[in-house]
Amino acid sequence: MGKKPIYVEIPIKAHMDNLWKVTQTPEEHEKWDLRFLSITYLPKNEGEPQHFTYRTNIGFGLSIKGWGKSVGTHNASDGAKTSSLHFGTDQKMSLIKEGRGYWKYHPQSDGTIQFLTQYHYDTRWGKFGELIDLIFRPLMGWATALSFDVARRWLEKGEAPATQYVRFFSTWMISVLFFIVWTYHGLVPKLLFMHPTEISMTTGVLPLTEQQAVWLNNVVGSLEILFGLLWLVYSKKHHLFKLQLIVFPLLGLSAVMADTSHLTHPFNPLTFNLALMILSAAGLLVSRDVPTAKQCIRQPK
Fold it and tell me: Whole-structure pTM over 0.90, yes or no?
């Protein structure tokens, strides 16, 4: 376990009992933690650690089953609490072999609780596993941070974790789609092949020569690719959705003005841009105030 451990911290304005319940009760914990599909406590005797099993999906219908135990809790005189964990799995297809970590709950004078975790783990598959972990470990940190913000919003705003995840992943699926749409239409019919329809639509709207229209479409194609990349890197997605609610009607109108015969084509500019405009409106509705991993502190103070 020589690699840097994963650390996540977030302030949550909630009562200690409520935060303890949603993080220490399996039925509540599995609702907000993206890393786990299910958590099941096993029977325990007095004075023994609490053993549990967990299951997490890895995609393609596959899941990882693991074991864990709470090796101790500590209640400090200032009201702070600590819960230590030991976890792992015997399944060979799991990158994680075994790990340890803890959760801490520090009450603050302003009524918030600094909720934090730090954990580390051993990997399988030798050098190949270490290479995969260069990508997997940041993803685990991101999933932990996103889950912490979902728990915070659940306790502070009363928004169910399932609803938050629907909005979060809907926003990102729509964003990836627009990245593909803008990048493809900027790259393929403009920069790579310069489709004749692109030239005719430009000269039909603007008083340009064919050579000037080619130059303009090269510029527009480059801008479309840049705008497509914004969908992946710009965090305030609702700004982009609002912009598209203006852009798509203009694009559809300009294409029809250039040549009304386009209206008879299958998947013509009018219906295509109308569909993208409606999808932008739907994206705007779901993209406001979504949970984000950026709410969390990722380095210990």
Answer: no
Q: Is residue 294 part of a domain?
A: no
Give the full edge-to-edge strand order of the sheet including 81-88.
Answer: 6-12, 113-123, 96-107, 81-88, 62-75, 50-59, 38-41
In the chain, the N- to C-terminal Cα span, in Å, equals 21
CA angle 127, 299, 32 (to 5 degrees): 85
CATH value at residue 36: 3.30.530.20
Task: Give the C-alpha separation, 124 to 94, whole Å.
Answer: 7
Query: Does 176 share its domain with 105?
Result: no
How large is the C-alpha radius of gyration of the chain?
Answer: 26
Confidence (pLDDT) at 1: 47
Identify whether 292 is part of a domain.
Answer: no
Q: Quick one: DSSP state of residue 189?
A: I
In a domain, 1, yes or no: no
Which residues pair with residue 243 across a beta bridge?
A: none
- Domain count within the chain: 2
- Three-state SS for 12? strand
Which tens digit of pLDDT belongs to each residue from 43-60? Answer: 988 878 899 999 998 777
Of 159, 175, 208, the residue at which a domain comes to its end is: 159
Residues in the chain: 301
Q: What is the pLDDT of residues 197-218, one digit of tens each?
A: 888 888 888 889 889 989 999 9
Q: Tokens 């400090």 — which residue?
A: 76
Q: What is the DSSP letter of 194?
A: -
Q: Where in the sequence is the domain holding 76, given as residue range(s)? A: 6-159
